[in-house]
Amino acid sequence: MKIENTFGINVKARALITYDSEEALREALAVIHEKYADLPLLLIGCGSNLLFLSDYRGVILKSEIKGILLKDETADEVLVEVGSGEICDDFIAQAIRRGWYGMENLSLIPGQIGAAAVQNIGAYGVEACNIIDEVRGISLADGTEHTWKCTECGYDYRQSIFKEKLWGKYAITRVIFRLSKHFVPKLHYGGLIKAIEQAGLSESTLTAEQLRQIIIGIRRAKLPDPAEQGNAGSFFKNPIVSEEKAKQMLKEYPDMPHYPASEGVKLAAGWLIEQAGWKGKSLGPAAVHDRQALVLVNRGGATGRDIQRLCEAIKQDVADKFGIELEPEVNFI
Ligand code: EPU
User: Fold this and answer.
1) pLDDT for residue 1 is more than 90
2) Is 97 a catalytic residue?
3) What rounded mean pLDDT belongs to the chain?
4) Degrees to nearest 5, angle at CA 89 with 84 and 93
5) Measuring from each residue's beta carbon to the nearest atom of ligand 1, which residues come in under 6 Å?
6) Residue-range definition of the domain harbouring residue 105
7) What's the CATH code of the domain at 39?
8) What is the pTM of this model?
């Protein structure tokens, strides 16, 4: 069974099982426990954050739970329950049409809603955890349902308990979002204000749909379309270093991009990779994108091992040049 993945890597699994409701998931789990008890189990969304190093010798479970349901509202906010199998960007587009705001900056991020909650996707100064109210999931071991309030999800920059302690233990079924009825654009991320001006728009009259289109334009200009060139978006996390380390580096590189983080200073991995000379370079069929060095691409026919080899070479050079250990953002399978 061929497995969907945006890197465009040709891999197979023993079986692929989809489910479109909690009941269907419980039935699927019963089949898995009976027929495939000895095989490992992997939960995937659209495969937009996975790097398969080889064929998967187990069973893949994929959510097709759909549904966008307004659960509650006040004069200022809505609580919306979304099936984990909904496409994230489709939900964002619909939310804007219905006057529910807060997700505009996440426009065009590939993947499903469930994966967005696992990965704590983020862009242009907004992270999924800013708008998630609750996450629901079902235990793969016994089919029981569990609900986590946002504060219980262990959210941090591209991090959550679902990626760590609970990895492979629960299938996310629904995510409840808390969105605003008032559009308050978040434009503090470098480049957005300039892009709005360049588009001939004004900050004071900007609509949510206009902001969405600006974000889509920036992403399309910088990031390769997985349908044309296999990739998984940012391959590495932006590293967080101590204030002292950042100060030292700024002495040598005064123009180095840097942002305040909860502990220390966040640097731009793309900038570090470019400085290490890797932007636009390739190693066999694996390459570093020529417009955003944080993205590794499959130039055609690459295996997971080819991408991994490139990842290791970049990590080594960045470590040698800057003494910084880059950490992949994608999950290696
Ligand atoms: N930069 C370079 N060279 C490069 C790439 C970037 O010098 O090749 C510099 C840019 O000029 C800028 C800074 O690095 O000063 C930051 O670049 P950018 O604004 O493109 O964002 P990023 O930090 O590289 C992060 C997210 C993206 C998200 C953008 C926008 C991570 C790992 N990545 O990238 O997320 O879209 O910010 O908010 O945090 C993803 O997760 O797949 C993803 C694309």
Assistant:
1) no
2) no
3) 96
4) 115
5) 123-124, 189, 222-223, 233-234, 237-238, 257, 268, 270-271, 274, 279, 292-294, 329
6) 68-180
7) 3.30.43.10
8) 0.94
